[in-house]
Structures
1.
Amino acid sequence: MKAKKARAASLEERILRHEAHVVVVGLGYVGLPLAVELAQTGFPVTGYDIAAKRVANVNAGKSDILDVKDEVLRPLVEAGKLTATTDPKALAQADCASICVPTPLSKTKDPDVSFILDAVKAIKNTLHPGMLVVLESTTYPGTTEELIRPMLEETGLKVGKDFYLAFSPERVDPGNPIYHTQNTPRVVGGTTPECARIAKVFYEQTIAKVYLVSSTQAAEMVKLLENTFRSVNIGLVNEVALMCDRLGMDVWEIIDAAASKPFGFMPFYPGPGLGGHCIPIDPHYLSWKLKSLNYYARFIELAGDINSHMPEYVVDRVARALNHEKKPIAGSNILALGVAYKRDISDVRESPALDVIRLLQQREAVVEYADPYVPEIKTDNGPMKRVKVTPERLQGCDCAVILTDHVGFDYELICRHAPLVFDTRNATRNITSPKARVVKL
Ligand SMILES: NC(=O)c1ccc[n+]([C@@H]2O[C@H](COP(=O)([O-])OP(=O)(O)OC[C@H]3O[C@@H](n4cnc5c(N)ncnc54)[C@H](O)[C@@H]3O)[C@@H](O)[C@H]2O)c1
């Protein structure tokens, strides 16, 4: 009992003095911004990642994550406050370890927790008394308690007594100019009340507000509610877009008018489908878990079904728009504008634009793409390099399809020179007298 109290006290004191050595496991979209914030708070931080190139870049002060600017990263690296390594032995120095590794789906849409398991194995090999371990990767309720805790306790060390274990979901919204790691409130759930308390103290040093929940399972579920909420609402509004098409209405007008209600309505917008590492994937973690409890998560499955069919719907609408011009889709020149999964970022993971391009190619359209953030993409026909959006290229295409509404695109130019524009994002709403025929989703 005495030893346990002393252990917690010394870790807490080290945290409060910002002397606790933090190892961030995984330096991607979530891990690198976190590592930077922690280092800025004053903690000595090591980033451990299995990707040698990413580690070398960080150690050279170069960030490949849009939200982390080199000007911010470099001074921290030069001052020795943040270093990166591919050596898992770095974990031996850790007072606190935050796990920020990917949680994708397998081909059969089941959770692939292998990255978490690998990270936990590395931590287990160096687990020592007085250490705090926090999982930040999005996952199904029960992961921390059912997978991680038993693995770490195989060392003979006991959670809440010898070491501390918690779950705290990262809520980063890449490209968001207002909310980032530091000013987005954190939810924390611990395996024991003491684990929760220590984890709360840890995050409070760096993050503006910490919200404690009763367990790691609750914290895991909070994140899945947040992302399922988005997926279901986007699914609803995508279905409203399909309905408006049949009814001959403009879905964008309907949403804008509904959004004038100051209470009880929150606007979501339709589009070519869902992308990124979160919204298309995370709800399936929840429905998978529920299936194991003989429960079918109807909203999740329905929203997933509608959202994942949007690329096909977009291609059908493009074909319809070309048909109106007496042009077949086969052989038509299509300029796809934007391939990142959302505005003003470079992330193409799960991007529906890639599906739209693939489906257009399957229908024998000749496709080129432009994107200020993405120089090259992989397609079924091999790698494709971006092209520039010029008046000549716009005039030479049969249809320009706006798939991502990057602020940097010149929509005036696009609507002046392309003969036909299919706009899946309402990006052309301010173009009052377009020369092109503009068709909206
Ligand atoms: N990207 C987002 O917007 C976002 C937002 C909130 C939460 N999340 C969640 O955060 C987690 C991480 O997502 P991300 O977007 O940062 O992923 P990412 O792919 O950008 O980065 C993950 C990093 O982990 C490294 N890695 C993989 N296995 C490792 C291991 N065993 N040991 C050390 N490093 C390892 C990879 O090399 C990579 O650099 C996921 O669970 C995701 O769902 C992501």
2.
Amino acid sequence: MSLHEHQTLRHPVILRSLEVQRIERLTPHMQRIVFGGADLPGFFSASPDDHVKLFFPNSAGELVTPTLGPNGPEYPLGSEPSPMRDYTPRRYDAERNELTIDFVLHGDGPAASWAMRAAPGQRIVAGGPRGSFVVAGDFDRYVLVGDETALPAIGRWLEEMPAGARVEVLMEITDTGDRQALTSAASFTVNWMVRDGADAGRGGLLEQALRNLPDAPGDTFYWIAAESRRARAMRLFLDNERGIPKEWIRATGYWKSEKDGNEQARPGDDHSPMNPL
Ligand SMILES: Cc1cc2nc3c(=O)[nH]c(=O)nc-3n(C[C@H](O)[C@H](O)[C@H](O)COP(=O)(O)OP(=O)(O)OC[C@H]3O[C@@H](n4cnc5c(N)ncnc54)[C@H](O)[C@@H]3O)c2cc1C
């Protein structure tokens, strides 16, 4: 195997009905929901960077999901499709048949609103993961950068990192109370940055911290997940100003700010999880 070889895996797309088992408010803006159900066995997620497509009840309170035809997803005619959003499988416990997903409570939106009011016994539908991008494990340092939507992936990544790995996390959160206790066998530091009322779509804290990050000996892999425009700007900074090889950066837009005419913002450049299933 050559140096820093990433792996891309494909998985068959399966839609699963998930039933809420338990809910835990981790921090003021993070709701942990543990799902179970008869469809869950066989769930597979190879990378902390994975995502599932979650389908939430439509305005009539119904779950209307697509069937997967030869031309992609097809919805039944005459019904309002369920809103679909991307979420990170934070933890899958096959023995307990439990899938944990952490939802940022950012305000309005079908996903955040549903998570805020979720109760045991309620159901949603999950599709995927349809693929996994497994980052090479032989970098000298990993720099993980994100807002709170990236925290589930970063928390999982830290838990899965082996002893001997070196990780630096730059994490932007809404309030000091949104800090989480993170654990890892790796050697890691977390720079928690509190927005303190600033707009999560505009930010500046992550960008500045990335600029100020001291160099380290050897090769560094950069993983970035934040609002689309911000993720893209940080990727361009590393690429254009720092000359980091493209294969050592993975930057993904995890959500789109609709303020300031950003409707046209593209998701991150490495992959486009906001595309349809
Ligand atoms: C690969 C991937 C993995 C992800 N994993 C997670 C995860 O594990 N947990 C998680 O909480 N999110 C995660 N996200 C982000 C999540 O999909 C988006 O935040 C999504 O837009 C939320 O949907 P919604 O229905 O709540 O709001 P939407 O209907 O999409 O948006 C409603 C309004 O809220 C704004 N908005 C959306 N998200 C945010 C936010 N985070 N902060 C501030 N304003 C926001 C929008 O600009 C819009 O104005 C992930 C995204 C991707 C692409």
3.
Amino acid sequence: MKKWVLLAVMALFLAMPVVFWAQTLSGGLPLGVYLYDAGRLLALVGFVFVFFQYVFSSKVRWLERGIGLDKLFGIHRTSGLIGLTLILIHPIPLFLSDIVQGYAPSISPLKLVGVVSLLIFVVAAGSAILYGRLRLKYETWKAIHWASYVALPLGFLHSLLLGSDLVRPPLRTFWIVLAALYVAIVLYKLWNRVRVRRHPFQVAAVVQETHDTWSLYFEGKRLDYEPGQFLIVNLIRDGRVSEPHPFTISSSPTRDRLSISVKSVGDFTSTIGHTKTTDRAYIDAPYGAFSFVEHDAPSLVFVAGGIGITPFMSMLRYMHDRELERSVVLIWGNKTERDIAFRDELDDMAAEMLSFQVVHVMSNQEDWPGEKGYVDAAKLQRYMGSVENPQVFVCGPPVMMTKVIQSLRGLGVPKRRIHYERFALR
Ligand SMILES: Cc1cc2nc3c(=O)[nH]c(=O)nc-3n(C[C@H](O)[C@H](O)[C@H](O)COP(=O)(O)OP(=O)(O)OC[C@H]3O[C@@H](n4cnc5c(N)ncnc54)[C@H](O)[C@@H]3O)c2cc1C
């Protein structure tokens, strides 16, 4: 789905309660009633915002197709905060309204259900915001985030049984549609888990690419994917199933074996080299929209940082195997030459493919004969200056991506021609 279509659907859903709410307003009423109306509006709009967070993070494939999970998760972060803020403050005008109208504010079991739901949302959002500062483990953060799947049903219960707007048919029906969609999302997630676990893949080879990077090759059911997309894998080693981890598919759909190439950075990835060919894997794929086939053009510029090379390996292997005629410049930053994976293969491709140039940039090797330092505006200008209207793809560490994208904008590359993928799903 296109991003604008999804946002338009969200805007339509948000407009529904506003329209119904507006129909129940009557002008010239005392302050207490204005406050009450404001509280109702905040609750209704906030709830629809919060509902959409389950849509954005659902990982439903046809939804993320054309947008990319990392971008959907980005929308989730921003709109989730807006929704949470609205539902967090909605009790304030309701409470003030009671006071202004001379009623003693009361607490009922249904209000308590709302408070519990709110608390769960606050903890889930708070742990996401403070993830880095609290040095939370990814798995801990994820377990906390999963709790919000309990919070929404509690929110439905609270609003359906307490909300005065939801007594009447139009909005009540709308709320029931939202509840049905929520159930559909949960069922989809369960079905997808069963589907993935029905056909485990076999680890066919484990290849060390550099001092800290390994490729795993898998055999199993044929997967339909575009070069540059990613998978989510649970490795089954010695009978133990790992947590799911996302990795770009570094192989090309033109080849028989599926592969990922993994850099050791933490608890799980540091054990990747211990994987054996007797091990198996559950693979959920494909995801993502970071592929030149989505934005085809005769000229392509790929800017990679470190392990951010993996989507480009997939795309280059695909172009090579399909003998596609494209002009490609790959600018790849690494610390030192011992961090360069796939060096021989890239050299072979550069020799075989008519218009393919690889530029290695080393940030930490004084005796490197080629480009040194970081991938900056001057280097981008030097190597892509003569390329006419390229589609530019960027993948690497967050700081490098931000700097490269800024430099590209400074060089006049329009936003619509810059594509990037974050190696983070939060
Ligand atoms: C779309 C995408 C494509 C990726 N492609 C590659 C690739 O081709 N090669 C490669 O080496 N790395 C890739 N990564 C990064 C890779 O997923 C993480 O490095 C890995 O999950 C870290 O796990 P860890 O336990 O070793 O590290 P930790 O030290 O536990 O975590 C390091 C960071 O990785 C992220 N992370 C950790 N666990 C998970 C998880 N279960 N799911 C999602 N993110 C997690 C968190 O942001 C965390 O802060 C990709 C990530 C994404 C989102």
4.
Amino acid sequence: MTGAPRKKKYLGAVDLGGSKILSVIAEDDGRRLGEDRRSTSAEEGPELVLERVVGSLEEALAKAGLQQGDLAAVGICSPGPCDIGVGVICSAPNLPGWQDVPICRYVEERMGVPTRLENDATAAAVGEHVYGAGRGCRHVIYMTVSTGIGGGLVIDGRLYRGATGVAAELGHMTIDPHGPVCGCGNRGCLEALASGTAIAARGEELVAQGGSALLAKLAQEQGRLTAETVAQAAGQGDIACQDIIRRAGYYLGIGFASYLNIFNPELIIIGGGLAKVGDLLLAPARAEMEARAMPEALKAVQLKLAELGDHAGVMGMVALLREGATA
Ligand SMILES: [Zn+2]
């Protein structure tokens, strides 16, 4: 007896962020068939956001010309502490009211397939390793520099999580023991010195001191002062703003040198919104890394920009679902 041929199944992946939800439906080789983007509307609270996650997956399925029954599994990545073993988002700084939300159980019930949760920086690291800038490399450090600094480590071809899953908190390496207080409570973490939040804070100080009329004007026009505002003023020739960005790059380079000496990677991939600032940030980072790292480690490494943009997280979830237990 020959049964009917087994129907092909597809993978669903969702990046749940503080401002937007991105869902894709993909083949297991990573080809994307359908996609949906919508605002998170986090202020509406967990229940409505969960509803939007399911709605987004359904829309991505519809765009791929598929139905719920065609899905094999769903992967979700999200910022903030989560218990990936039980699929619970413990808390999320940019999702107000989220406390121990069992997102996997909810999506499993609604979509009828196994659902897996992962931290978004970890997922992005896997995405870049498997489908992006790190293709074919076995020793990769992925760092995302945006409002915070996060990342992932691929050691000998495998994602490294550490004893309790906290590994690769690349932004929380102490760079200056007397530096500014970090969001984690420690002092002088890389994140407190080189993240978008840190750059914006230095920009605020500069404006308060009357140090940049251009930055003050841009901030007033935009109604806020972010790292992008500082970068914009720097791009328009403001020397003090250029110094702020260069200083952040300098600290990043100190971090890179330590990662090189500890992990001896062949590649450091830099993603996140601030990577777009380009050489003003990355040239001093590279110079400082070169000045500090051991020559043998330096010889092996390349710095590259991430390639997948905001698809890194969802593509990482596709890779993790595909590989099942390997990661
Ligand atoms: Zn910290």
